[in-house]
Amino acid sequence: MNLFKILPIFFLFFIACSSKPEIILNEIEQNENLIITTTNENKYVNFNFPKNFNANDTIINQELKKFSKKINYFELLNTQDSSFVNKIYSYFNKENQHPYRMFELNLSDTSKQVKFKIDSNKIHLLQQILQDDKTYINKKEIELIDDFSYIEDGQLLFPCPNIEIPLSLNLLPNASRKYRSGIHQGIDFAGNYDSEVRSVFDGVIIRSDLDYYEVSNEFRNDLLKKASIIQRTPSDIFVNILYGRTVMIDHGFSFTKDKRIISIYAHLSKINPKIKVGKNISRGDIIGNVGNSGTSDGAKGNRKSAHLHFELIIQDKNGERYLGKNIYNEELLKLLNRVFSHK
Ligand SMILES: [Zn+2]
């Protein structure tokens, strides 16, 4: 084995060892149902409670606010500027604001454990906003602070009648998709093969694969091999092949004036012949039927693993992102259940 092969291994070993947070238990709060532990000077806060205890957001946010007041921002931001640090404290003093982000959720039969850690991206973004350095606020930071609040409660119709948001995180946005070296940008709705799919909102049809035919499994696998070499899903492979038989709808600026929103319905088995590019469509109109086109089962010609892959893409002057990007676990489920309705 030559030195160039060994060096990266040492490097990875070093990274693995050095990035582990040093856990120093420095505070324990307890009431009969809720046990809170914090580590590393309140940089990590863990909540432990019985499964049947209703630890709602208000309780958790109140507790996180308490701990956020004890954070040493001078050290965290490496600054001596006390007026600036005071601005940060007062920002996080506002209702519903705290510097933490949930990063782990553990459920057992009897208890629930939710772990939060300081969201350094949020704090550094805030630092730049307070210093009014707008050039720093690039695409990535805008994505990090998008909470999709411009989509009203129940504004989107569930695309498959009577099918709810799946509970498995693997079927939701941000899940990893190893087979194509990518990230899942949508929601996989568990509709049966050939069950109806409908438009989530009024709009104009911008793609309708009425003349779709399935590619061979060999061709599909060959494209996936190319994706694995470049370690990401290239947009052409994703949009032209992996989506399968697809409809896309442009909802324009109907949600909010500076954001264009489109919806994507992939892996369809059939498309309603009336769904033609350029035609208007209303919320609830039938687009087509659930299928598995574009998947490996579709390419093999069977009806296994049928589902609707649905995406909502938001575009603005800073770029584009999918509904749910950078939102995880319970917060993600809450967001998706908030924006969809069956009526
Ligand atoms: Zn999917």
Characterize the structure shown.
The termini are far apart. The protein folds into 2 domains: 17-143, no CATH class; 156-341, Glucose Permease (Domain IIA). The longest helix is centred in the N-terminal third of the chain and has 16 residues, at 3-18. A hairpin with a 4-residue loop joins strand 2 (35-39) and strand 3 (44-50). The protein has 10 helices and 19 strands. The chain is elongated. Strands 9, 11, 12, 13, 15, 17 and 18 form a 7-stranded antiparallel beta sheet that branches. Strands 1-2-3-5-4 form a 5-stranded antiparallel beta sheet, with helices on one face. It is α+β, with helices and mostly antiparallel strands. It has helices at residues 3-18, 57-68, 73-76, 82-93, 120-130, 139-145, 217-230, 235-242, 296-300, 329-339, and strands at 25-30, 35-39, 44-50, 100-107, 111-118, 156-157, 176-177, 182-183, 187-189, 196-198, 203-208, 247-250, 260-266, 270-271, 280-281, 286-289, 308-316, 319-322, 340-341. Bound molecules: zinc ion (ZN). Zinc ion binds at residues 184, 186, 188, 309. Residues 184, 186, 188, 309 line the site of zinc ion (ZN).
